[in-house]
Amino acid sequence: MSSDLKKLYSDIIKRHQEAPFHFEKKTDMQNTIKAYNPICGDRFEVYVDFDRKTINQLHFHGFGCAISKASTSVLVKALEGRTLAEAIGLCENFLGFINKDLKSNEVLLQEDFKAFSGVHDFPERSDCATLAWQEMKKFLESRK
Amino acid sequence: MTFPVHAIKSNFPIFTHRPELVYLDNAATSQKPLSVIQTITDFYTKENANVHRGLYELSSRATKRYEEVRKKVISLIGASNQNTVAFTKGTTESINIVAYSFLKKKLKAGDKVVISAMEHHANLIPWQQVCKESGALLEIIPVNEVGELRLELLDSLLDKRVKLLAITHISNVLGTINPIEEIVFKAHKLKIPVLIDGAQSVGHYPIDVKKLDIDFLAFSAHKMFGPLGTGVLYCKEALAPHVDPHTYGGGSIKNVEFEETEFLDYPHKLEAGTPNIPGVLGLGAAVDYIQQLDIHEAIHHTKNLTISFKDKLKSLGGITLVGQAQNFGSIVSFQVKNIHPHDVSGFLAHANIAVRAGHHCAQPLLESMGVPATVRISFSIYNTMDDVDKTIDAILGVKKFWS
Asked: Do the chains contact at A65 and B363, CB–CB below 8 Å?
């Protein structure tokens, strides 16, 4: 097994894919974000319990590759309990990191975020890593 | 005699440039032999001119060669009249032409169009949309658990309200080869015209539109060693007057006045605007290439690879084959237990093995089978037993990594 594949499927990613955080259908939530990729067939739904300006709880469910599942799990874990502004900031941070357009002086990345650095060697997988994050950012920005 | 696979592989320059490539995504698009590439390059280099336009030598030569490709195509599909062959952008456009420029004007509320559950989106969405616009119903022939059409239900689906039946010859997901002769026979008893989606079959399997009495046959050049962006709509002579122009413009007309236009006959009425001349010439070269092969030996070769791959795959354990029809082509869809198809295909890509993962433009089919996505492997004439073994080794590696 080559080292870049090992880096792509890092232990953190494997852990999130095997035991995803808050992986549960919550269809009674007031907001459901659809993170679908029609090209590959990945389909995740993120259920948002959103109270004025704070994200109280997040859950998700669906089907996708290890990268997209782990990145959605990381999203749910990272954004829960955050204010709107904080959550948008984290989305920008993660997306910037994956797309390699982070400015050097930006916030230190969480360990869970850094686990996706292997995607840099597999640009065709960046859509997998960013699927839920892009949809979440769009949703949060519509609530500003 | 053994199939000359190495000689054949050497006809495809991509394998000289990328000797490490194991190309198993042939159902998406095939590789191109040098003769096809050279034909296109030669046209632009030595013969570029428009067709049906100029009186000068280059233009009349281009016209002649362009028209000659119709003759090559009819010899491939068993038609006898070259004017049954219209050039299109591909299978998708060919099917859309039949939906919108043949069927739509006939469809009334309460009429029906019958397709099957294993259709590619290209042979589903045009009918779905044209039905919606007309208030007609789209009826689906279901698929059983091994991925075969439930033809015992066909009689109950066909009646006088059915205005067209559209069905794929070979499923691009399951590899199932459908008994189109029987389907056409049943439809014709009720005078229902039949469209066959030949995207996965034409050029790889014998098909005879006359013998099978097919009304419409749609296919693409790029899946049969020809160039991208070129395809064919074959239409039986008797129905040709009922196909209207699909796009309007020059090249498709007999006479134009400010108030009225008189169109040419099929196929020219469908070919408005400057056509994809090098694409059509490339299609001609692809037909030439196919016709110098022994098609039965070629089928035997790809079938051997398919059977060997399936056997070796099953012996790995934790594999679910999606589609196990009795009569199958060179397409294998499967799942590896607990590993998403994209993660499998990502690992294979890393070993220079090109396969497809996802729903393969047949989302409703996979949903009806309770499968969100599969890994799909599709063999062609230049694939070798070594390709099979490398792929099996790589899948074993994926399984080990995730265990």
From this structure: no
Give average pLDDT by consecutive 10-residue segment, chain B, 403 residues: 92 98 98 98 95 85 95 98 98 98 97 98 98 98 96 97 98 97 98 98 98 98 98 98 95 92 96 96 98 97 98 97 96 95 94 94 89 95 98 96 85
Q: Please report residues of B whose CB lies closer than 8 A to that of A67.
A: 342-343
Cα B173 from chain centroid (whole Å): 12
Q: What is the CATH classification number for the domain harbouring B243?
A: 3.40.640.10
Q: Which residues in chain B have their CB less than 8 angstroms from residue A39's CB? A: 358
**Interface residue B248 vs chain A (CB under 8 A):** no
Residue B153 and residue B277 in one domain: yes
> Of B68, B30, B23, B22, whose CA–CA distance to B202 is shortest?
B30
Coil/strand/helix, residue B208: coil
CATH of the domain at B369: 3.90.1150.10
Inter-chain residue contact A5 with B350, CB threshold 8 Å = yes
3-state secondary structure of B173: coil
- Cβ–Cβ of A128/B372 closer than 8 Å? no
Q: How many cross-chain Cβ pairs, A to B, lie less than 8 Å apart?
A: 45
Residue B120 CA to residue B326 CA, distance in Å, equals 20
What ipTM was predicted for this assembly?
Answer: 0.84
Instruction: Give the CA radius of gyration of chain B.
Output: 22
The chain A residue lying nearest B398, using CA atoms, is: A1
Scored b (16 or more CB within 10 A) or e, B150-173 reads: ebeebeebbeeebbbbbbbbbbbb
User: Do B153 and B209 lie in a common domain?
Assistant: yes
Active-site residues of B, by number, are 361
Domain with A22 in it: what CATH number? 3.90.1010.10
| Tally of domains within chain B | 2
